[in-house]
């Protein structure tokens, strides 16, 4: 069945009330019952919930074939938890598991053999990259992976689409009773936002830490009242790989040029007022936008009420200089943001649900004035793909992309028009992650396109030196320089479903033929 | 020839590097210079030349003027460089290490031949001469008047300071004589004048100071080696709003009084006459290029 | 013109291509590796064949490692390899290259 964007979702996936995507606010006012976990009461007195090792804890949870386990990605490329737990599960011979992760990447490669031998048969994730992306693209996972945004994942956990049997939560510190935090210890992640829902909705909750601290470990991101077991291991992650990865402040003139134009769009938009709110992605050019914000804030004599999202050093610097009043943090991307989280009184940890869940009553994304995001591909209808490479391979992460884009008053995409020879702006995206109706401005190195439905922005930019072009002109320029790409051919096998934040299917991703 | 055109920035691009030449127009310089000379390794001269030809032929540089720095006249490369540049349709050729008017004339003759050979309108390819030695500076006026193809002369400080036994400093006092002499020659000959590159890309303040100085001296633009120098240079060459307003007033007042036959008048409390119009128009043109003037007086 | 010897041009930098051209006795063989093979592989091979046709290269093994080069660079690298393989340095018939 085709959805409103013309993307075909095979009927076999439209069971149990599942629908195709019908517009970004289609489920406004939707009524549902929240899922509730089955809880083992802890009545007897005691001072710890410690078990000696991962195997003991896996056995204690009663994990069985067909169950669902969850992980987070706050430890990013330095994560040891997923591989550590999966090795034990693999050796125990438990099969047919669903892994519900907040993101998966190169630190989680042990999932590949688990996928190949049927230990893991379902995956739900907000990011899918590297070896796991290749294995899933090649159709090695028994069932299609479900790609969810951060807000969509929080929603799926709360509305019962995903029922987590055991949540394995790596935490920088914990007390023996399970009050756990991202702060302190050897692998400091600052916050544990993506696990807040897992801790409350999973039947069994396990804290894995390398740093036990005395009770009470407050403020606790994960509270002991939700925790069944605590296990201490030598190391939960490689601290050097937590704060690196995607982030660097660019000195590339081309990226700076785009960043400046993005900041200019904010400045002239008509919404750049005192107390405004914004979020930037972690990619080079979107991150670089913050460099220019200070200058424009001085020029307009305004300050920012709050900045949200993955928090980074440039944002923390603006916060400390008094340009941003509050930080709402769902992920600390570098050492400076890790250090500032909780330590600075106005730097708040928020849960993934508070951040972006469309089905609660107060997600902060709904109040965003601006969001600056990246894109692998944008099409002439402004649809954005951040999940699938132009060669058909799964190699990206929606993260909060569809959530913030739907919520923000002004959504700005920043991306180079051509990467190597691959056109970013094209006739059709390989798959849709975020619908064009959520996207207002596309900033490229060859010019800036405004979604024609935003007549207010077009009027606001008219007498500025923002280099406006139509999205079709950008596409034509890209094809003129790079040549029109040949369409990738796909098999019939669906390897992943892209679930929109409200639970409808926005696209179905098939196995590329060339992977045979 | 289009002496009217703004040429505030000319950025050197190493033609050997495919990634550099494919779309440098995104940095919005006024001109690019595809370099076949110093940036290109000796054994890659042929590769750079062929890449140059296809870059000129195939890629739309969005109206940005395309120059080619050929190899010096003491090499055995410059003749083929000229043929490739003209065949590809470059707007101009920059001759390095120009010493005499005859150097320019020799290049102009080869350009003539190439224009005929490759069916390009004869006389359309411009030439710019880079002056890099004491002798060149002394010959500046002869060079500047050597050929109708000559669009401008440019200072190149590296070799010049070496042969002068001078030390290249941040303040640039050692170049003061050369800059002044080159400007005098260019203005007397009615061609444009361009300043040398600033090589320390990690010293933005030094670059800013130098561009302000050469703007005040009267240079038309600066040769650049990094895209980050382009925006800075354009900003510095952009007149401030007061200057723009005054320039508009001058032109409007002179136009209004022309009909009445009044020669001298007062604008914004200052005496002006018809001779001021040229400068006012230059100010507005610079402002228009920067987007800070949108009127139709220029 | 007959290729005199093997020649190489280009680099493995992003947006470039490295091309090795070697004479053989039996036809034209193009071996293409490309970072954009799925989208542009067919087009790139066609382009290289056109260039060979224009330059009358009939018997050669061509090994291409493409890193997302634009057409103008692919053409330039193959032509550079060709002129190196026939030892021609000057008097190139530029108009015949396009």
UniProtKB/TrEMBL annotation, chain A:
EC number(s) per entry: 2.8.3.10, 4.1.3.6
Stored SUPFAM superfamilies: NagB/RpiA/CoA transferase-like
Top-level division of the source organism's lineage: Bacteria
Keywords per UniProt: Cytoplasm, Lyase, Transferase
Nucleus recorded as keyword: no
Gene Ontology terms: cellular component: ATP-independent citrate lyase complex; cytoplasm
Catalytic activity: citrate + acetyl-CoA = (3S)-citryl-CoA + acetate; citrate = oxaloacetate + acetate
UniProt-recorded name of the protein: Citrate lyase alpha chain
Organism: Agrilactobacillus composti DSM 18527 = JCM 14202
UniProt lineage: Bacteria, Bacillati, Bacillota, Bacilli, Lactobacillales
From TrEMBL, chain B:
Binding positions for Mg(2+) per the UniProt entry: 132, 159
Entry binding sites for substrate: 69, 132
HpcH/HpaI aldolase/citrate lyase domain mapped to chain residues: 8-227
Cofactor: Mg(2+)
GO biological process, one term: oxaloacetate metabolic process
Molecular function as annotated in GO: lyase activity; magnesium ion binding
InterPro entries, A to Z: Aldolase/citrate-lyase_domain (IPR005000), Citrate_lyase_beta/mcl1/mcl2 (IPR011206), Pyrv/PenolPyrv_kinase-like_dom (IPR015813), Pyrv_kinase-like_dom_sf (IPR040442)
Pfam families: HpcH_HpaI
Keywords: Lyase, Magnesium, Metal-binding
PANTHER family: CITRATE LYASE SUBUNIT BETA (PTHR32308:SF10), LYASE BETA SUBUNIT, PUTATIVE (AFU_ORTHOLOGUE AFUA_4G13030)-RELATED (PTHR32308)
Name of this protein: Citrate (Pro-3S)-lyase
